[in-house]
Amino acid sequence: MQTQIRPTTSGAGTTVFTDARLIVGDGSTVLEDAVITVQDGIVVDVATADREAAGRSAREAQIISCGGRTVMPALVNPHGHIGYMRGTVCDPAFYSRDNVIDHLRRFVYHGVSTFQSLGTDLNGVEVAVRDDQRSGLLDDPDLATLFTAGAGIVAAPSGDAGCGAPFFAVDAVHQATGPEDARAFVRRLAAQRVDAVKFWIDDRGGQSAKLTAESSRVIVEEAHEHGLPAAAHIYSAEDAMVALDAGADILAHMPRTPEPDRALLDRLVEQNVAVFTSMTVQGPARTAWLDDPLVAETLPEASIDDLRARMAARAHEPLFDTGKTYRTMRHNFEVLHEAGVRLVYLADTGVFAQLPGIAEHRELEALVDAGLSPLEAIEFATRRSSELLGLTDRGLVEAGRRADFLVLDADPLADIAHTRRIAAVVLEGRVVDREKLSQQLLAAAR
Ligand SMILES: [Zn+2]
Questions:
Q1: Comparing 149 with 315, which gets the higher pLDDT?
Q2: What confidence tier does 60 reach under pLDDT thresholds 50, 70, 90?
C-alpha cells in the first residue's frame, strides 16, 4: 500500500511534489520521476529528479511525495448544466443557488477545476454565483471556477409547436418571438457579462418551434458585437449548416444525422468552428460504471440503484437511446477528427445520467472508445478545453500555470478509466481534503 497524500490547508508558500510520473497535458509529454515546484498556487518549475529542482528551496518548502504515482492536469469542462440534479435525478424543482454550489464542489472532488454552464441559468443564479466567486465574496477554495452563458435562447412556441427548450430548463431559457426580440435578449446577456451566448436550433423531432436562420444570424451578430462567443445547439447536419451560415463559433454537439458530408466538413474546418464531442450523454448503454467505488463516495446507494433502474427502463426511449445514437456519434467523431475538425471535450454534465464529476471521466473514456489515445483524450479535456474558454493559466502542468492536478493510483495510459482512481486532487497547490468533501456531498445528496 502506497503512502497517503494528506490534505494541506493552503497553497501559499512553496510546495514541492516529488516522485511523480507526469502527464503534462500537451498530448505527448510524459516525464518519469518528475519534481513539480509550486509557489503560491502556481507551478514555477517542472524538472526530472536528476536535475535536482527540489534542493533549491527545500529548507522552507513543504515536500509532498507522490509515491511514484501518475499526475495529470485537472479537467476543464466547457459545457454542462448545473443546479438541476439532486442525487441522480434531474428536475427543475431542485434548482437553487445551494445546488449550483454543491455541483461546483462535486467537480473539485472529482478533479474538475473549471466548468462552464451553457445556457440554463435560472433567474440569474449562476451569474450571481460566478460574480461572487470572481469578486471573492464567495470565498470557498473547494469550488470549481464557474463560467456561464446565463440563459440561452430558443424559439417561442408557435401553433401546435412548443418552445424548443431542453425539458428541464423551460423556465430558464428565453423564448424569442423573432430576430429583434432575440437581439434585445443578447444585449441583456451582454449586460450581465456572460461568458458566451447559447442558442438552440432544434425542433425536437418535430415537436417544437425552431429558431429561424435569420434569428440565428442576428444572435451571433449581436454576440460578436459584444465580443462573446456564440454556441449553437444542433443535432442534425442541416441545422449545423444553419449555425455555420449564422457564423456560430461553437457547435454544442456533433452533427448526428445524416453523416457529415464533404461540404459540411469543409465549412467546419474553414470557419475553424469548435465542435463539442458530447458522446456520453447518449450512452453507451452500459451501466457498469455505476459500480465504480468513486460513484458511491458522493452519492447514496439508493440513489445509484434508482438511476440504474431508470436507465434500464428507459433504454428504448428516443432521447435516452443509448445504443444506436451512441454508435452514430462514435462514427461521426472519427469522420470529423479525420477531416481535421476542431473537436473539443465536454460532458454535458447535469442531465440524464451525466452525474457532476463522474460524467467528465466517462467522456474521457468515450473519446478513447472513439479512437483517441489516452494521452490525446487527456489533452482534449485539459489544454484544449481550457483554450476554448480563453484560459492560458491552466490546462497543462508546466511553469507559469495554476497548480491544478490529479494524482492517480493507477495508470490512465494503460486504461483511461484509471483517471477515476484518484489518490489526491491538488488545486492551486493545495491538496484538497476529499474525505471532508465526501461527507459533505453525501449528506447533500440524501
Ligand atoms: Zn448541453
A1: 149
A2: confident
Which protein residues have a CB closer than 5 Å to ligand 1 (ion)? 348
Percent of the chain with pLDDT over 90: 85
Structural domain for 303, as ranges: 75-388
Task: Calculate how far, in angstroms, residue 306's C-alpha sits from the geometric centre of ligand 1.
Answer: 23
Same domain, 18 and 112: no
pLDDT of residue 248: 98
What distance in angstroms lies between residue 56's CA and the mean position of ligand 1's atoms? 47
Question: What spacing in Å lies between the alpha carbon of 110 and ligand 1's midpoint?
Answer: 20
- Long-range CB contact pairs, 286-294, < 8 A, 24+: 287/311, 287/312, 289/358, 289/362, 292/358, 292/417, 292/420, 294/110, 294/358, 294/361, 294/420, 294/421, 294/422
How much is the pLDDT for 191?
Answer: 98
Q: What's the gap in Å between 412 CA and the centre of ligand 1? A: 27
Apex 25 CA angle, 19 and 26, nearest 5: 125
**In terms of residues, how long is the chain?**
446
CATH number, domain of 21, equals 2.30.40.10
From the CA of 417, how far away is ligand 1's center (Å)?
A: 23
C-alpha 40 – ligand 1 centre gap (Å)? 35
Q: Residue 36 is placed in which grid cell? A: 513539480
Q: How far is the CA of 278 from the centre of ligand 1 (A)?
A: 8
pTM of the complete model? 0.96
What pLDDT digit, counting tens, does each position of 338-353 carry?
999 999 999 999 998 9
Domains in the chain: how many in total? 2
Place of cell 433502474: 309
Read off the C-alpha cell for 381: 479535456
293 CA → ligand 1 middle, Å: 27
Is residue 54 scored above 70 in pLDDT? no
Distance 430 CA to ligand 1 centre (A): 31
Taking the C-alpha atoms of residue 120 and residue 115, their distance in angstroms, rounded to an integer, is 14
Residue with the bigger pLDDT between 198 and 315: it is: 198
Residue 354 CA to ligand 1 center (angstroms) comes to: 10
The mean pLDDT value for 151-161 works out to 94
